[in-house]
Fold these 2 entries.
Entry 1:
Amino acid sequence: MTEKPAIKVEKLVKRFGANTVLSGIDLVVPRGQVTCLIGPSGSGKSTLLRCIAFLEEANEGLIEINGEPLGFTSGEYGERNRLPAAQIQKVRSHIGMVFQQFNLWPHMTALGNVAEALVTVRGMPRKAAEERAMAQLSNVGLSARAGHYPSELSGGQQQRVAIARALALDPDIMLFDEPTSSLDPELTGEVLNVMRELAQSGMTMLVVTHEIGFAASVGSKIVFLDHGEKIVEGRPDEVFGKPRHERIDQFLDTYLDRGAATLL
Ligand SMILES: Nc1ncnc2c1ncn2[C@@H]1O[C@H](COP(=O)(O)OP(=O)(O)OP(=O)(O)O)[C@@H](O)[C@H]1O
């Protein structure tokens, strides 16, 4: 029997009022690999990620997480596939998410931020939570900063705390929504390095990014969205190599980043 993918999305439709933002997306995220979602601003990348994490509810289509179908309210799959909220919550607990804005609690130290998630979400006793939090901070190279507040940390360090916080909850899928967009180039590099190591450890990752160099070197699969549609999908060499899809060419002209210049 073939292994179920970590994430499977079929014919996903998301509308905001009259605006159809995702018009029937199919996506498979294989286990233990990095899938990168790229595309112009407003193409629907974040919305797709947020639908997969159930931060937004899609209008139609199907999402499966680890083979568990989480259905939607209308369309071909119908109401019958919709799971009760508690079960959705259970499936969601396998997913860790990191956002563009780090979303740390400002009144808590780095250690406090990571430990608090374990206490509130997992019900772990504070002492055990702090031990685990310390180990996670060490994994992202921040043990020396554990006692610092977010305002005392660089943006790159804050994002690494946010990654440690997500990883502390022991997810088997990590979603990243433009995790380096608000960082300058040097700090971007340190966050991408942490993500690269996570990828090497075999974590299943779905990453929305404008860092084409990262996508090309770490991604197993690149998915290019434009105007809410999947235009191209394939290995980095297929998507970025020549001859290239015309819309990829246009996109690269606009978004080509430092890493990409040497890679492509
Ligand atoms: N909560 C919302 N309400 C209404 N429209 C929304 C909402 N969220 C997103 N949109 C619209 O959906 C479209 C896709 O937005 P989305 O953020 O998914 O794009 P994106 O590809 O991630 O863009 P970027 O690279 O700029 O982050 C945009 O037109 C946006 O204005």
Note: The chain has a mean pLDDT of 90.
Entry 2:
Amino acid sequence: MPKILVLNGPNLNLLGQREPEVYGRATLADVEALCRDTGARLGVEVECRQSNHEGVLLDALHEAGRAVKTGELLGVVLNPGAYTHTSVALFDAIKGAEVPVIEVHVSNVHAREPFRHHSYVSPAAAGIVVGFGVDGYRLAIEGLVRQRRA
Ligand SMILES: O=C1C[C@@](O)(C(=O)O)C[C@@H](O)[C@@H]1O
């Protein structure tokens, strides 16, 4: 069965308790269950990982790039959290590993503080889903599967 990696970055382990007026009440476990259910409906296995460490995210993207080349992985659904707005290294990893990435943000970053308006990840992304709450993960998985099966 083809696979998708759902990769969550810093502070997303706090979903559900973290600023619920911005991010809602769903926990990371809820999000991961939603992702696995979405994958099951589409005939895709979903692996979920979360890290608060930039280097761990980079290593996961490099590994994902290798798995895409062997045909084992379709791509990555990535919520880079605050690294979205700071990390040239994430941009370089996505480009360098040649991994199809759908960037997801739970909140509408463009309606928030100006420092959230710029993303280093977006120019390297194959698609972007912003502002749909945690349902954005479902939309991103559906979009990635459609893109990769087209
Ligand atoms: O950690 C996050 C979460 C976020 O990526 C989102 O999902 O809305 C938006 C980022 O600006 C923020 O730093």
Note: Residues 11, 79, 81-82, 84, 105-107, 109, 116 surround DQA (CB under 6 Å).
